[in-house]
C-alpha cells in the first residue's frame, strides 16, 4: 500500500523533542505506508530554508509560494517565478485568500493580487496551485475563474467548505483535499461533502504540524498520521483503505505531474 501526504509543512515540525531529523519523520511515515509527501512553503525565505533542510530526496517534492497571511511583509513577484521554476517544485503555493484573520481592505487587496500572481505563474510554468481559503469562498471562486486556473489545475487544500462549493471547484477541474478535520466529531457537513467528491478528484493531507486527526488529538501532527485521515475517509466513502490509497496516490501523481514510477 502507498499513501501520500499531499500537504505538510515539513520544516515546521518539532525537531527538538519529537523528531531527531527529517529522516526520522520520513521513517515514521514509511512505517505506516506513507511513502511520499509534498512539503508546502508559506514564504520565499521559508521555501529556501526548507529546501536546504530537506535536501534532495526521492520521497519529498516541494511547492513554492507565499501564504495569504504572509503577504504583508512583501515579496518579489519575479523571485517567486524564478524559484518556482526549479524542477523540485511541483506546485505553486500555498496561496489563496484568508479573510478570517485579515479584514482591512488593503490586506484583502494584497492577498488577491498575490493569489492572481501565483495562478499566472502556475499557468506559465504548468504547475498546479495549492489553494487555501477561509471566510473567502466567493472571492476565491471568482479569482480562480477569472484567472483561468483550470488551465494549470490545482487543489483546494484542507477543504472545510460545503458540497455546493465542492461542485463549483470540481467543475473548474480542481481536486479537493481532506485533512484531519474530517475526523472531528462535529464535522458532519464536511463528511457530506467528502461523500460527494468523486474518487478520482480526492486527495488526503495532514497540513502537519497543524490539525492533528483523531485519535492523536493533543499531539503535534506529522505525515504518518495521514494514514488516520485515509482510514477514516475510506469509511466515509464506503471503500477499502486499499482502494482509497490507490485512488488518492493516482490523483496526486496526475495533478502534480509526478511520474507514477516514483510513487510505487
Ligand atoms: Zn492552508
Ligand atoms: Zn498548509
Bound ligands: zinc ion
Rg (C-alpha, Å): 17 Å
**Biggest sheet, spatial arrangement of strands:** 1-2-3-4-5-6-7-8
**CATH fold-level topology:** TIM Barrel
The CATH H-level homologous superfamily: Metal-dependent hydrolases
Strand/helix succession: EHEHEHEHEHEHEHEHH
Number of strands: 8
Query: β content, as a range?
Result: 15-25%
Please estimate the helix content.
Answer: 25-40%
Shape assignment: globular
Low-confidence stretches: none
CATH architectural type: Alpha-Beta Barrel
InterPro entries: DNase_TatD-rel_CS, Metal_Hydrolase, TatD-like, TatD/YcfH-like
GO molecular function, one term: hydrolase activity
Protein name: Metal-dependent hydrolase
Pfam family, one: TatD_DNase
Task: Note down, in words, how this protein is organized.
Belongs to the metallo-dependent hydrolases superfamily. TatD-type hydrolase family. GO terms for molecular function: hydrolase activity. With 264 residues, the chain is of the alpha/beta class. The protein has one domain (3-263): TIM Barrel. It contains nine helices and eight strands. The chain has helices spanning 22-30, 44-54, 77-84, 105-125, 137-146, 163-171, 188-196, 226-237, 241-255; strands at 3-8, 34-39, 60-64, 89-98, 129-134, 154-156, 175-178, 202-204. It has an eight-stranded parallel beta sheet with strand order 1-2-3-4-5-6-7-8. Helix 3 (77-84) packs parallel to helix 4 and helix 8 (226-237) packs across helix 9 (241-255). The longest helix is centred in the middle third of the chain and has 21 residues, at 105-125. The protein is globular, with a radius of gyration of 17 Å. The site of one zinc ion (ZN) has 4 residues, from loops.
